[in-house]
User: Fold Aspartate aminotransferase family protein from Kushneria aurantia.
Amino acid sequence: MSPTQPRQILDMNAFNPSRDRAGENPLLERHHHNFGAASVLFYRDPIEMVSASGCWMEAADGTRYLDFYNNVPSVGHCHPRVVEAVSCQLARLNIHTRYLNQCIETYAERLKATLSRTLDNLVMTCTGSEANDLALRIAALKSGNRGVIVTENAYHGNTEAVTAISPSALKRAPLSPHVVTVPAPSVDAFGSDITTGFTTAVKQAIETLRKRGYGLAAFICDAIFSSDGIHADPTDLLKPSIAAVHAAGGIYIADEVQPGFGRTGDAYWGFERHTVTPDIVTMGKPMGNGFPLAGLAVNADALACFCEEYGYFNTFGGNPVACAAGQAVLEVMEEEQLQANAQHIGAHLGTRLEALRHYDRRITAVRGAGLFIGIDLCHSGETATPSPELTSAVINGLRERRVLIGAAGRFGNTLKIRPPLCLDEQEADFFVEALSDTLASLSVKSR
Assistant:
């Protein structure tokens, strides 16, 4: 049995001011004084970034880093089309949404065209947290229940309501009794029949919530289970679980903040890989390529029922500047064929990583779809002994080789790959060579 303990998501490879001084850095001292305990910085020696373009970021010392972590600038850092769209709209008009505006309606119609016709209304917000918070409120009213099912290491945001359904964000606070977790859909949890095992776990969670008196309001997940360590398959996974959720009176919320907008390559939305239709789709981050833009799509009747009981207005959600950014993102994705690129480059990257896995047994798994890939690292080469220590060493070794990457998974031993969708083959190879070199150097150090 592994002695490894579950890891809190924000602690993975984070700067710790009580442990890491990072030399005499006046900017770091200013940052710590201004933001205190709520500050989250990467690396024991945090990086001061000054510019970015495409898949690359540049630090104040002139070092250029390949960004293999950040799904926010999905069409590439500082994409000129997005910059131009935002700048032009900001120079023309920026208001809240209580006035009519062509830009807002054009974007809404373009976005809705990517979704099922049953999801005929949008509510625009600024963050995925706000979108998930509102989705939970709609689910509670529609179902008449409060209980929520999530996976064991899920992350869905940082309002009070969504922090409660984000086990990976909890440090000492216990899980609320209205929330029940199920294991991520993996061979480790369910053996060879993952679909049956996961469905059984969801049904047991429904029964637990019934016995506790909460009933089931919603099952929420992102369809690639990113914070749980990236579990893309099997693609028949969700359908029987959602049928059980609907039978219990609950609704299915697809959190597409991470797997959405073409990242998985074979589908525009992560849930489409599973041939299911959500009751609510929440989205954010990559929508505006760095400009704050998020929202949810929902059936008009469900939204009308909610609005009969509660008012909802978001001052900045879906403003013309945000919608201009969102429209530019959709246009760039289509014109530059970025979903197809994610599939093509993701396949190339997966092939090279599998070859490296066969060479280095510390890589125990490579999973994912498109440009969303997880690499499990275990010091002994055994899946029963996950090694967040090795993963942290690899992350810092990659930083030395000019690659930025993060971690995920219950034990923090999964490298989380999600670069901008414009990644090319040469950049993918740059990463694989850097990873290979890092692992080789760590082998030498451990002897």
